[in-house]
Amino acid sequence: MDPVIEVVGFLLGFLGWVMVGIALPNRYWKESTVDGSVITTSTIYENLWMSCASDSTGIHDCREFPSLLALSGYLQASRALMIAAIVMGTFGILATMVGMKCSKAGGENYILKGRIAGTGGVCFLLQGLCTMISVSWYAFNITQEFFDPFYPGTRFEFGEGLYIGWCSAILAICGGSCLLCACKLEQSDDTPYMYQPNKGTVYSAAVTSQRGATSPYDKNAYV
């Protein structure tokens, strides 16, 4: 495995994991501004855990969602996927750190270390997929409610938490792909070469011995 590709894949996956940790508690997954006078203008914003509001005076008021079972299905699924993304990213970081060639963990068995690094790449891919599904599903519901003419509630728009989540998913997927491609290239380069002898030339000991042996019919045999 190329150490440069290893390091690049690890850094991309690690950055994606950090950004997942930033996106999960971010309060601005969706936001809406209620325009009015200078005094009554307020901003409403929500994430996976709470709903908040702030007015033009700078006062913030947040309220956590009271019941897990009372939440929408997509909101519960988004929570579970984001937590799964953090767990997968943690396993990916640990596996990649052990499997990299520049790491002394795992000994000198580079075949085993390559497989461990490939497992870390799979974990990074799963992290990116979980994040992408969670953020995209949440954004789809925002879009559906915004363009629904019969929706009675507040119409929200995309917040910064969604964009952080999308960037995190792309980084994690790129990092996992780099690690998997590097492992595949290493396996193809380490394939042993099978020696095939030249079948065009055959040397026979029997023929050589027959040439060297004297014929039982010498020149006086017919005399």
TrEMBL record:
GO CC terms, sorted: bicellular tight junction; plasma membrane
Topology of this chain in the membrane: Multi-pass membrane protein
Transmembrane segments: 7-24, 80-100, 121-143, 163-185
Annotated compartments: Cell junction, Tight junction; Cell membrane
GO MF assignments: structural molecule activity
Keywords: Cell junction, Cell membrane, Membrane, Tight junction, Transmembrane, Transmembrane helix
InterPro entries: Claudin, Claudin_CS, PMP22/EMP/MP20/Claudin
A Pfam family assignment: PMP22_Claudin
Main location: other
Known role: Claudins function as major constituents of the tight junction complexes that regulate the permeability of epithelia.
Family indicated by similarity: Belongs to the claudin family.
Name the record gives this protein: Claudin
Organism this protein belongs to: Anguilla anguilla
